[in-house]
Structures are given as C-alpha cells and as structure tokens.
Specification:
Elements: E1 30-34, E2 59-62, H1 75-84, E3 89-93, H2 100-105, H3 119-141, E4 148-151, H4 164-180, E5 185-188, H5 191-198, E6 207-210, H6 216-221, E7 232-238, E8 242-246, E9 256-257, H7 275-283, H8 296-308, H9 319-325, E10 330-331
Parallel strand pairs: 1-2, 2-3, 3-4, 4-5, 5-6, 6-7
Antiparallel strand pairs: 1-8, 7-8, 9-10
Length: 346
C-alpha cells in the first residue's frame, strides 16, 4: 500500500469487468490497489507517465491519505479514470491511533458518551469516526465499493501505541463504524503486523495479504495463510505497482447436495424406519415428530405437504416428494466473489 509510484492515466489500458458467470478460470484474477502514493508531486491528480503492462480487471482505491480522518487527494481523478476505462473499483481505508486532539473530540459516538477519563470509550468512538469519515469520502467521490478493506499495518506518521488492547479498541471501532453503515469489511495486514498491533484479537472477516516480494508466486502462496483467522480472498505483490490476485476461495463454486440427496430415489411409507425417515420428518417441519419411524402422524404431515405443493396425495414419499422437500437443493455455492469486492463506476 505504501509503494510511491505514479498512477496510470494514459489511454489505451482497457479494463474488463469480471462477471459472476466466470468459473474456476477466475483463480488469481489480476488487479491493482491505488491510493495517495500514486498522486503526482503537486497533489493535483495522478501522473500520466506510467501505466500497467497488462489489462486492468479491477482496482482497489484508497480513501484516506495514509491515516484516519484524511482524504486521498487523487481519489476523484482515480475514480474518473476507472469510469472512463470501465474498470470496477473497490475501496480501502487506513486507520491510525488517534492524536490527543482527536481523542478529546471523541466524547460521543456509537459507544456512548465518554467521560474525560474513559479512554476505551474514546478510542472506540474515534475508530468509528474514522470509518464514518472514510465512508463520507467514498460516497462523495462516487466509489461504489460493495465492501471496504481496513489496512492495519505499521505506521511512521501517527504510529500505533504500544498497547495491544488500545490499538484493538480503535480497530474494533472502525469495524463498528462500517457495520453501522451496513458495509461488509475485510482486513489488509500480515500476521506479524496484526499481532504486533492488536495482539491476540481475532476476526473471521476476509483477509488481504501481501506476499512480501515482487513475485506473483509468493502472493499466490499467501492464499493458504491467514493473519486474523479469516479466509484470504486477495493477495498482493509489488513490482512497479502494487498488484493483486484473487484467491481460489473467491472462485465460483456450484455448491453441494445436502443429506437428503442420498435418499432421493428411496420410497418411504407406513412402517419405514431409519435415517431417511428422520430427515423427511425434519424437512416436514414437525420437530416433535422426528422419531425415525413412519407412523400415522408422519402420514398426516405428508398428506398436508402434498396437498400444499399440489403433489399426488398418497401419504408416501417418493422422488417428487423428496424434490419438493429440498433434496435437490445445493448448499454453499456462489458466483465469483469479486463482485463482493468491486463494482462498476456509474
């Protein structure tokens, strides 16, 4: 995230929105993350002196200027570039430990009114305020990001404190601020930085991990790791630009059948017993009648179900009834999850 390189604005780099219809071939889809380090020296916009050598499938734009309560000065120009080149965008913010002035101003917020000595309350309220500021920046700039990444890393300006619990309180506040805005979030960090900043704090949200080198293979290897306890969705490597890859966990998956699938061709009637009967009774929504024995109460429930679903009413369960009960339903499937991270700019 810190790489101080020029941003691309030259025409001829064609972006391609990645759609949910793509399947397993979407593994390691390539993109970039862009923020204030890519501003021109005068801060008035991106430089046009460099561009990536490959097509841009997505970019993740920094909302802040390397710390909380700040604004990426090139964000508007970077959004304009993405719009004109039809490149979908995501967003990230960089939180920081509050200054004394910011802490004094955090007397109220989602964590309530804070007394002058209630540091925990003020830290969390400031974290929530950092999130609110970044969200306001995102909306003013027209960034349609479906989620926001929280970049938790070492800082030279506004450094984190030496207290894991204090730092964790700020990060928790950022998470709360995003949640209150109904924005999903993930974390950009490394295991080393995460543990040295927030200690034992864990979260199951998506991870975005740098590979620590300029090699794409090192970034791909990070897909098998986690810094916070969550699944790793994106990894990063740095050449001339910060470059990103989607991890296999983001690939489209068709899902899997549930336990009723095994019995889809099994016929059940009065006198039947066993696990197939139990599953059918559970699916019929009568927990008090889950006995594993196909009795008169089960027949009555099946007749009512068949009548409701316009099936042949015979009190028996065969393939059509299993289908109506959900035996053919797929679980755990999803399209390419990149659509959860980036979206086209209107």
């Amino acid at each position: 995230m810190r790489r101080a390189v020029t941003w691309l604005l030259a025409a001829g780099v064609l972006g391609a929105a990645v759609t949910a219809s793509q399947g397993a071939s979407t593994t390691y889809t390539h993109g970039y993350d862009i923020s204030w380090p890519q501003c021109s020296n005068d801060g008035n916009g991106p430089s046009a002196t460099a561009k990536p050598s490959s097509s841009v499938h997505y970019v993740i734009l920094g909302l802040t200027h390397g710390a909380g309560h700040t604004v990426n000065p090139c964000l508007a120009a970077q959004v304009d570039w993405a719009r004109s080149h039809r490149v979908p965008v995501g967003a990230y913010l960089v939180p920081s430990y509050p200054t004394a002035q910011q802490l004094a101003a955090a007397s109220s917020g989602p964590y309530g009114g804070c007394t002058a000595t209630d540091k925990n309350c003020r830290l969390a309220n400031d974290g929530a305020a950092q999130a609110a500021d970044a969200i306001a920046v995102m909306r003013r700039a027209g960034v349609p990001a479906p989620m926001v990444w929280v970049d938790v890393e070492f800082r030279h300006v506004h450094p984190w404190s030496h207290s894991h619990s204090d730092n964790a309180r700020v990060v928790e506040g950022v998470f709360t601020g995003l949640a209150l805005a109904h924005l999903p979030y993930g974390v950009y960090t490394t295991s080393y930085m995460w543990s040295h900043i927030v200690g034992a704090m864990r979260t199951s949200v998506p991870n975005w991990l740098p590979g620590g080198s300029n090699k794409a293979e090192d970034a791909r290897a990070q897909c098998r790791a986690s810094a916070t306890g969550g699944a790793t969705w994106l990894t990063q490597y740095t050449r001339h630009f910060d470059e990103d890859l989607t991890c296999p966990v983001m690939d489209a998956t068709p899902g899997h059948h549930g336990p009723m699938w095994l019995y889809r061709n099994t016929v059940l009637a009065v006198g039947s017993t066993g696990p197939a009967v139990r599953l059918a009774q559970q699916a019929l929504g009568q927990p008090a009648n889950v006995t594993g024995s196909y009795d008169v109460r089960t027949v009555a429930a099946v007749v009512a179900f068949q009548t409701l679903h316009q099936l042949p009413v015979d009190g028996r369960i065969d393939n059509d009834d299993w289908r109506a009960l959900g035996a053919y339903k797929l679980y755990g499937g999803h399209g390419f999850l990149l659509s959860k991270v980036v979206a086209p700019v209107s």
